[in-house]
Amino acid sequence: MHDLIALVIAHGAGLVFVVTLAARLGVPVPAAPLLVIAGALAVGTPNGAAGVASVAAFSTFALAIVASILGDAAWFWAGRRHGYKVLKLLCRISISPDSCVRQSETFITRWGGASLVAAKFVPGVSVVAPPMAGALGMSALAFLGWETLAAAIWAAVLMALGVVFSAQIQQVLELLSTLGVAALEGLAAAVLAYLVYLGWRTWRRRVFLRALTMARIEVADLRALLDGGHAPIIIDVRSDGGRAVDARRIPGAIAVALGDVEARVAELRTLAGAQREIVLYCNCPNEASAALAARVFANAGFTRARPLAGGLDAWVAAGHGTEVFSPSSFSSPSPPGRGLG
């Protein structure tokens, strides 16, 4: 066991650097537990090697910060360069792609640079926060400052946990070193538990998607309504952060964030009645936000509220023009019968 600890002390800093960098780039590797173990070994080293352990702990702490900055800086640069496309890519490969963009937008716009600190401890947001910050126009200097602070706090908290629970962690390591096959069985059980968790999350997402099953309106049908003089009310349900990243809109669309839809239902009923066609769109996987908003309208008695299949991307891909949001377009729906083409 002592040899194992000595090996980790000798090479642990490099291992932490590699694993942390991979984790910040989005690879599902256990960077946090590794830092906790590094903190535990820093205070529980045998044979009077406390000085060596202290140097190793400082090296581990410093390299964890550098690795975190490098990984997040890569995503920050990608967000600055490619904007919303990078966010959608990250969210499509996440466990909960339907809410990933929306949650990340809310997180960044509400907390600003401080969100980079909090994001380090929020699964599902930690990898998305840096490119979101880049897409929203945070300066490189501000990002570097907040990211350095975030990485330092993250590494310090995890290593401090290791210090606090060093005795228990050392006992576990001692036990694992003597278990042999039993240790492998325990590892297999942990992997199985993780797979069960993934299965549960997948099942929850399927239930969520089934709850949003409803008729969509195709881009061609929306275009036909506009060209035929039967303009629907078109509502962009993206968050303010989403529209800041991508200010394009379908011509004539009004901005009503998903969280504000219920409060605006009565207003829209007064202006247009419950029978006018309502088309809602977002820029999220499975039109999740638009479908949630359409369900709010349906529950309020609107009979013709539908999400736009494919959202804003599908509209643009079909070759139709867009406008840029102006302040007035955030509140006033187009009058009945107005052509928006």
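That was protein one. Protein two is written in the same sequence-then-structure order:
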Amino acid sequence: MVCPSWLSFVLYNPVRKILTDREKILAESGITAGSVVLEVGAGNGFFTEVIAATARKVYAVELQDGMVEKLKRRIAGHAGKVEIICGDIAEIDIPAGIADVAFLYYSFHEIDRKEEGARNIAGAVRAGGVLSIYEPVLEVGRDAMEMTRAVFESEGFRAEARRDTLLTRFLRMRKVEV
């Protein structure tokens, strides 16, 4: 279930800011100063603001209008670095090869049409680019994470790092050079 925008305070609060090392997450996702990032499920901008402060450009995809309004306010200080795309990743058109990194934090499990979403994400990532997926342990079991890996492998990615912690499953993949 997608987190409704009226509950977005859960996604952006002081406790989460303390417990989440956003800079470390960006680093292990391969996001650098020169990166162009496709962030799928941007929500209210908890990661978008940090990605925008780090990367060259962010394409922030968000499904809910209420979250988009909160996201716009959150990234106001990063004019020109963030382009918000409102829509379902399984349905929108994204230019091919625009991103060095696709970043999905607690969002892929919420996509109804996973194969179509994965196809659009894969098309947006350049050859040699990175796909970084974080999922909540309580909602995404090991089998579901393995299915996510398989879906993206069928789209030309290969796993290069994975780990499970108390709260999060992490998978980093690289798009195979063609």
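Residues 6-10 have pLDDT under 50 and may be disordered. Keep this in mind for the problem set.
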